[in-house]
Amino acid sequence: IDPETRKFRLLMYELFINKNWSAYKITQHFNQFKVDGWDRWTESAIKKLLKNPTAIGVFIWNRTRYEYDYEKEKKVKIENPRSEWVVRYNPDLAIVPLELWKNSRKRLAKMRAKSPLTGKKQSRNQVSATTLFSGTLFCGYCGEELKLTRSTNKYKQMGCLNGPHRANDCKLSSSKSTEVIEKCLLNYLRDNIITESVREDIVTKANEYLKSEAEKPQIDISPMKSEARKLINRITKLIHRVEKEGNEDLCDVYDQRIIELQKKLQPLQATIREAERQNRKKDVKPLEMEQCKVYLTKLRGVLNEEIPMAAEAIRTLTGPITIRQEPIPGKKRMRWVARFTPDLFRIVSMMSHQTDVLNSIVLEKGGQAAGEEVTVPLENIPKYEKLAPEFLRLSENGMSIDSIASAHGMSWEYANQIVHFAKTGERPKWKAGKKTGNGSKASKYLEHADEVASLKDDRKMSFKKIGAQLNISMGTARRAYHHAHRAEILQVVENGQKLVRTSYSHLGEEVYQKIREKLQAGQKPADIAAEVGCGRSTVNRTRKKLQEVN
What we know:
Radius of gyration: 37 Å
Strand content: 5-15%
Strand order of the largest sheet: 5-9-10-11
Oligomer: single chain
Shape: elongated
Largest sheet: 4 strands, mixed
Number of helices: 24
């Protein structure tokens, strides 16, 4: 026995049974202290160690063997008959007491019975996931687990291995980038599942269930416990007789009777446990909103942990996710559609570490009625497709294409193509440019945005003059101005108002400033017009504006 890790192996059982910690909390604890020099412990690894018989000094060899399967063209693992197992028991190598190990196995069995994945053997990806959704995605046609069909440092894709060959009548012929899968599903979980409204729904359902359970009468278990003790005593006496009896025929009769009594005892003990569980619900306090909020905050932290731990938390929240494909109108490629039934009760129960009866009972019951199947499309939606509904609304409200383009910082041509797609469904056809390897150049209007805004707002110059002065086109000057004022323009468009730009003057702001100064000094309009080189009507208009201001 390794003296360095022995204390941690024993600690694992004590935390799991005596302190009622969940496997998830033990995982966090072991990673925090880097037990055995390792900080990538997973919940699955902890559960395997908890049920491993080596903890009580029992070692099993020859349990499995590998044989070559000529049909699958690979080696497969086969379990040998129990009669061929080589079992050795060495009490000197036991780390934990037998009773503690038994209680651990019992609790793990109860947890497994409640799991939606009960009866399904965990795959390698479910034990130690390589991506956030490894071991969680399944083909909606043949039921096979989706795996990496391409795995490089930069690009990873998932798909069904049966799809491309049409094996098992599988129709999932396409594959999907893991980046797209994770982006779409995580965004959906963040925006629709881990939200304030869902948290309030959890608390309401849990407390309603608690109230209904508290109103039920207490179950009297004394008679059942008395009957169970009598059966145990009778079984114990028969076992002692078998040990002392030398007649094999009589021993067979005793064995048969022990089996009969054991069949009566097991369901009775199960009834007692259920009754005790029902009675404990009377003392459970209602779930508080802040408590649930803390659990969900922990969940967000888990999603930023190592991939195996984050993948296990996601799988607990979503359950199995089935994938199908459907055609996209106007495109040759297929769209993936994910379907699953999220259950926030399960994940909150895991985050709570099951430190009280509430989290193991109320959340479990609430989770049975919680959640409806949801559908999430998995694809990168082009920018023009996302903007199409909004652009159509603005266009129908009377906004010009130029105003819409200005508000969203894009060219008139691009905005026009988006509106056209929204009305007809015809997708834009882009012309492929030449690849230079140097990346795309920065747009010219971005370089001149501040300068154009200053010339337009302060000096009241026209776009034509600004373009000539900066050696750019009038359209580039207009786009630069709109980019500098995109926030104000967007607000105008949202309010349904007409876009009004700053007026300009051929004379320039400096000439108008001179006119205003001379008018305020009391000079005559004719003298001012002759001095600055403008018409009398210009001076009169400026005087009128000054009078309106004053």
